[in-house]
Each structure stands twice: as structure tokens, then as C-alpha cells.
Prior knowledge:
The chain starts with 8 loop residues before the first helix and ends in a 13-residue tail after the last helix. About 45% of the residues lie in helices and about 15% in strands. Strands 1, 2, 3, 4, 5, 6, 7 and 8 form an 8-stranded mixed beta sheet that branches. The protein has helices spanning about 10-25, 35-55, 60-65, 75-80, 120-130, 135-150, 170, 175-190, 205, 230-235, 240-250, 255-260, 275-295, 300-310; strands at about 80-85, 100-105, 110-115, 155-160, 195-200, 215-220, 220-225, 265. The chain folds into 2 domains: about 10-55; about 60-310, 2-enoyl-CoA Hydratase, Chain A, domain 1 (Alpha-Beta Complex). Helix 9 links the parallel strand 5 and strand 6. The chain contains 14 helices and 8 strands. The mean pLDDT is about 90. The protein is α/β, with parallel strands linked by helices.
Amino acid sequence: MKHYLDFEKPLAELQRKLDDLRQHPEQHSMGISWEEEIQTLQAKIEEARRQIFTHLTPWQRVQLARHPKRPYTLDYLQKTFTEFEELHGDRMFSDDRAFVGGFAKLGDHRVVVLGTQKGRETKENILRNFGSAHPEGYRKALRLMRLADKFGLPVVTLIDTAGAYPGIGSEERHIGEAIAVNLREMMLLEVPVLTAVIGEGGSGGALGVAVADRVLILENAYYSVISPEGCAAILWKDRAASPKAAAALRITSTDLAALKLVDEVVKEPLGGAHNDHDAAAASLKEALLRNLDEVRSLPVGGRLKARYAKFRAFGRFTEPLRAAA
Length: 325
């Protein structure tokens, strides 16, 4: 069953009429052929879709990033990559199923790919911890990245998480330290590193696998230090202010590109990636291959310096710093 968001309701009504017409053609309007009426409704649906999805608010893009039918990491591993062989465990505590990763091919390139994975139904969400990894997830990711570095394989990370898991067990096993070590070690990887935010890019949980030579983001994904709901609860003391917070945080792909916090926005099919998984996967593959070719052409020393300079350049100031008295 197709899932419609609130702002997609006009599409839902038109689609319902189209489905009814196809199932009961005898009920079509007099004076116009059945085929013509279908074509008219299809044209209306396409125009409505174009009007809706070219004027989305930041909050509506956040809703799209969380769409339950949106392709997840495992979907891209099947459609964007080939020959994926999953590796398990951090060799220290356990295998965190919120992270998946292993060897794969991207086009003709052998790579190590890893990413956060959500579930589509309750049982899978419990298995994947709703895409929020424990410390062992980040340590598994680091183990795979070090393996890639050892064998000279590029690293590709896919991000779709609301954030690292903040529970007691996670804190007891040092979630902050695990993420911090990843930030340091990813800066030193000698192989090319690419990151793509495919859905939610929440806080340090996303950044812990996003220190990369190129950071890409899908058109309707978001990347933020805090969720709009969390920001609204802190600043406005009301989660109902989430749409206002989403706009103030400037977390959409276009805002992030303008702020130079991401390197490229990857176009999605009209209506969002959930409407056409194959087209979304093909678009991501093209962007990853193009950026990988560019990054691979750089010498190791130059690549490391550029990666360091890229993250050091983050931040904007609206007031000049005052000289010390």
C-alpha cells in the first residue's frame, strides 16, 4: 500500500480517482473516451507532483528523508553496488546490526562500503535498533575502514541515522570515545573516502563515518547537529515548533551546499527516492563514480591535506573577532 505524507494528499486523491477509473471503466464520464480520461488524470498527477516537489519546505524535506518507503543502505547495496560480501563484528564486543558493511564493487572499482541500516517493520527495526548504532557499530566501521586502508581499497559510507544510540549500555561502552576515534582515524586514511547522506544525517552518529574527501547528499536528505524536534524542544519548549526549527537549522541539501558543508547534491526522481528506487540508485552510482575518479587522481599527500583543509574550513562568522586588549 502506497504511503502518502500530509502534503502529498492532493496526489493521493488524484491517484485514487485514476485507480477507480482503471478498475471500473464503465463509470467514466460520458462524452470522453476512457483512454483520454486516464491520460487527463495522469497529466494532472504529474503536474501536481511537479508543483508540490518543487516548492518543498525544509520540514517537508525532513519528512521525505524519513519516508518509510525510502531506499535504505541495503537497497543501495543491491542496486548501486555489486558483489557485496558482508563482514561482521568489531572483534571487541559484538556485531552491531545497525551498521552493515563489507567488500563490494562500484562499477569497475573494488571498494569497502558500509552504512547505517534502518528497518521497515517492527521486528527488523528492533534488530537494527532503528538505525542508531552502539559503540561496537562504530568500532566495526573503523575495523572495515582500516582493512580497506591496508589493501588500498576506497571507502564508501552511506548515512541514514537519527543519531548514535544514547542508552545506558552505549554510554557504558563509551559511545563518545568510539565516535571521536573514528573522526581522528578517518582523517588519516590514505585511501579515497566518499560519503553519501541518503536519508537522515543526525549529529555525531552521522559524522562518525562522514570524515571524507567528498561528502554527497541526496536531494531530500538532511544533515544536522540535532533533529528539528530536539531543537524545538530546547529553544521553543514545544515540539510543535519543529517546522520552524527545521528552517532555522538550515539542514536541507540546498542550504548545506550553499554553506559548503557538502560537496554535491545528488538529484532524486521527481516525488522523492521512494517513488523510484532504481532511478535513485542509478543517480547515486553516477555521482559516486564521478567523484571517486576525481579523488583517486590526487596523490596521497595532496588528498590528505585537502581532506584536512576541507573540515578545518567549516564555520562562518558574522562578527569580526576583537583584538585582545
